[in-house]
Amino acid sequence: MPPSTRKLAPGPCTRADSLNAYRDWPPGPIAGEQEPTWDSEEDSYGPNKAHAERVLGAALGERFLTARAGLIVGPHDPLYRLGWWLDRIAAGGRVVVPAEGLDQPIALVDARDLAGWLVESVEQGRSGAVNATGPAGMTTFGGLLDTCREVTGGDAE
C-alpha cells in the first residue's frame, strides 16, 4: 500500500471524479462504467484521474466509491463555467464558441445533486466506479447554448 494511503480512515471513502478517466472522453458519449479507462503513465488530466482511481481502489477495496462526473455546475462554482455562458447568452449578440463545435457532447451534473447522491450512496454501502451524469448523449454544447437562450430570453447568435 502506498505510504500516502496508509493513514486513511477505516470507513467508506468517496471521490467525485471525472469522465476524463475514460480513454474515449471526450468526445463521448460514454456507454457505461465498463468503458476502458486510461492505463498509461502519461502525466495529463485523464490518465492522472484513472491512475488515482486505481491507487485508491487498490488501497481501499470495497470501501471506495468513485463518481465519474461530467461538468459539475451549480451555486458556488469557483470557475463559474455554466454561469458565464448564461450571462453571455443573456447579453445577446454574436457569441464565439470553442473550435470543437456545437456538436461536442457534454454531460452536466448539479453539484447539489451529486453531493446528495454521494451521501446516500455511502449510507447504502455502494462501492466501485459509477457514472454520475445524465444519460449518455444527454446534450451537446449547442444544446446547452440553446437552453441558455431559452431560460435567459437572450437573443444571442
Account of the protein in words:
This protein is an alpha/beta fold. It has a single domain (11-152), classed as 3-Layer(aba) Sandwich (Rossmann fold), CATH 3.40.50. The protein is 33% helix and 17% strand. It has four helices and seven strands. It has helices at residues 45-60, 81-91, 111-123, 141-152, and strands spanning 13-18, 64-69, 71-73, 105-106, 108-110, 128-132, 139-140. The strands form three sheets. The protein has a three-stranded parallel sheet, sandwiched between helices. Strands 3-5 form a two-stranded parallel ribbon. Helix 2 (81-91) crosses helix 4. 24% of the residues are buried. The model has no long low-confidence stretch (mean pLDDT 87).
